[in-house]
Design brief:
The chain is built from ten helices and no strands. By secondary structure, the chain is an all-alpha fold.
């Protein structure tokens, strides 16, 4: 072998079939820059920040439904007559709150929350403009607060975790909170009616008014242009609430 072969031994394998010579060692060391040595231009930095904001927006848009605010239906009160009917049918909740038992703190909170439901409902149905959607949210939130107070008045041993979760979701998902605590109230009502024969007639009235109220609530959402459905729902709900007050006597 000549001097050239000794200086560049990899050339000795050139042309051999099936052999590929790598010019650099795979174990060669490369200098890695430190984070502090990496300098970004203002344009690159602004682009990265914009991408991060876009990612956060996409994550927020894909959040579960329980973390989304309520979508308020504002199609009620299409006419003056419907507005008057909805405001007048909100007044029974104030009367029921004033007549509700107040034998302890939980019962007082429930009674006052019922009055709040009537006031919030009346203010919403008599409102117009941009304020209307906020009053609709207040109406739903007040209803959810009343269901929480009622379940608290019926059962003093409510789990603390449930009450904390209810307080957290109350402003952002009041309908879910209402459904959970209304279900707890229905179970408690059925148990009391099973043990006390005097409550069975009241419980039957409660069941009928609750079923009618659910049907009217769904119909109000499915047929928003149909007048006076919402007022009828107010009346059915008021009958159901009146029967619940019997549980606190």
């Amino acid at each position: 072998m000549g001097p050239q072969s000794k200086s560049n031994p990899s050339r000795a394998l050139d042309g051999v079939h099936g052999v590929h010579v790598v010019p650099h060692s795979p174990f060669a060391l490369e200098e890695i820059t430190k984070p502090g040595d990496f300098h970004q231009s203002p344009r690159e930095r602004s682009s990265i920040e914009a991408n991060q904001r876009l990612l956060m927006q996409r994550v927020w848009q894909q959040r579960p439904a329980c973390l989304r605010p309520i979508r308020c239906c504002l199609n009620d009160d299409e006419s003056l007559g419907e507005t008057i009917a909805n405001v007048l049918t909100s007044l029974p909740f104030i009367a029921l709150g004033m007549q509700a038992p107040r034998k302890n703190l939980n019962c007082k909170l429930y009674a006052n929350s019922l009055i709040g439901v009537g006031i919030a409902s009346g203010l919403y149905h008599s409102s117009r403009g941009k304020l209307r959607k906020y009053l609709r949210w207040a109406d739903y939130t007040m209803i959810a607060t009343t269901t929480v107070c009622l379940s608290r008045a019926l059962r003093n041993e409510n789990p603390k975790l449930l009450m904390a979760a209810s307080a957290f979701f109350l402003p952002i998902q009041p309908l879910m909170v209402s459904a959970v605590h209304a279900g707890m109230m229905e179970v408690a009502f059925a148990k009391r009616a099973f043990d006390d024969p005097d409550l069975r007639l009241v419980h039957n009235v409660h069941k009928m008014s609750s079923l009618l109220g659910c049907a009217l609530f769904i119909a109000d959402d499915a047929f928003p242009r149909t007048p006076f459905i919402h007022a009828a729902w107010h009346l059915a709900a008021a009958v159901g609430v009146g029967t619940c007050n019997k549980l606190l006597e």
